[in-house]
Structures
1.
Amino acid sequence: MHFSTIISALALAGTTLASLNTTREYELRTQLKPGQEGKERFGDLWLVASHTGAGLNDAVLYANRSYAIKGFENATNITQSDGQPFFNQLFDLGGTLPYDLNVAAYANFYAAWEPVRIDGGSGSGGFFMNSSGLQWNSDPSGPAGSNLFGGWLVCDWWHGVPQLFAKWNDYHYESPCSCADVDLLPVYI
């Protein structure tokens, strides 16, 4: 293979990630929901990808913003009821390929919440932003009321740092003392 062919291939791979970015880049920060006294440690944390295998990461949160990952959205062909598109929530982890926020990686709908992953390849889709930050519709093409997403939960469990979980709206339990309900707000770069 000639040197110029290698350079051309690398240039093309670099433009692949940039062409998927249809929005302004941001970092996601937690904001503690009201009424959770004693859980302040879960506020003002930044989303980070914690490597768990080849192309696989758990979504964790750090207090130090310098570790935050850059996120962006890529519009899908499915629209919301107001005509706005749903998005894939993508992240630039420094390589040539994007990583998707994957909410339904485990899809145990009998559990009250599920771990969130940031993996290479196709993710959940169905994301959008509103005044409470990043939201997810688990069934964007389904009938009204078919969305199972009940919000974001941050827990001190598996990694020695807070980890991100998605709650299912069929369960209305008080969060455990090692967890807090949060919003994920974009901080634009």
2.
Amino acid sequence: MAKSALESSGRSSSGKPSMRYRIKSFAIDYVRQWELQTMVIPGILFMIVFCFVPIYGLTIAFKSYTVIDTLGSAPWVGLENFKIILSDRYFWDSVVNTLAISFLKLAIGFVLPIVLAIMIYEVRHNRLKKFVQTVSYLPHFLSWIVLGGMMITWFSTTGLFNQLLLDLGLISNAQNILLDANKYWWIATLSDIWKESGWGTILYLAIMAKIDPTYYEAAKIDGAGRLRQIWNITLPNMKMIISLNLILTISGLLGSNLDQTLVLMNSQNREKAEVINSYVYRMGLAQGDFSYATAVGLGVSIVSVILLLTANKITSKLNDNQSVL
């Protein structure tokens, strides 16, 4: 009697829903929403084919793989590729460059979209607001091929940048700035911020648009100025989206912009321009050392996951133990 009662209730002896009950419940839900469920299937198949199946290729990192081998025939070498990585000076140089550029982008590029979004939100003239938004978004839609070509022209000895500095009397001799390796970190940082800061304001503006205007009206009645309203109303309402962007930014510290690097890097600034992504590209596709490149990519992915979990843990502590992931 007890067993039949459990079966009729759809639960196993442990109190959890039985497998048969869960399959039946899923079938009922699928039939009820078959249009929406069917629309999801192509996305699931896409993820399986392009995201999960290629994971098997990570075994290359533990093999000595060449183009004449298959994934199954390549000989196993264990952790040999990872040992080579630890002793590779050029790899560690790329790590230093990646972290330097990423931390500069984090220090400047993370705060700037927040400030820019607040400034745009505070503009009361609608036409001026739309104009500023359009101008700030525009660089995002230009590829690094286009922007890189523009920058190469601007920074040449006869380019716009040198001509302005000469006219202002700030320099006496023109020089190609992209050939100076010591300036590359700042060039990469500032050019990326210029390209993406406007686009980064979209989420913040969307959140600010949902803030109840009565909060600001009550603050005005209490005598709060614009800065006090921003500090006590605007920023607290943006706390969760700021935390989410911070987590994603920290988790991507080891993933510099490959397109930007390939366009702006040259033989003169390579020692400061080579980042992990371009190093993996050069070792894997240019030199054909697929096992080594895969090992580097796998190691970077593992560290990125650790950074993601750590940043999420820290931000959840700052947000009263509320995780944004």
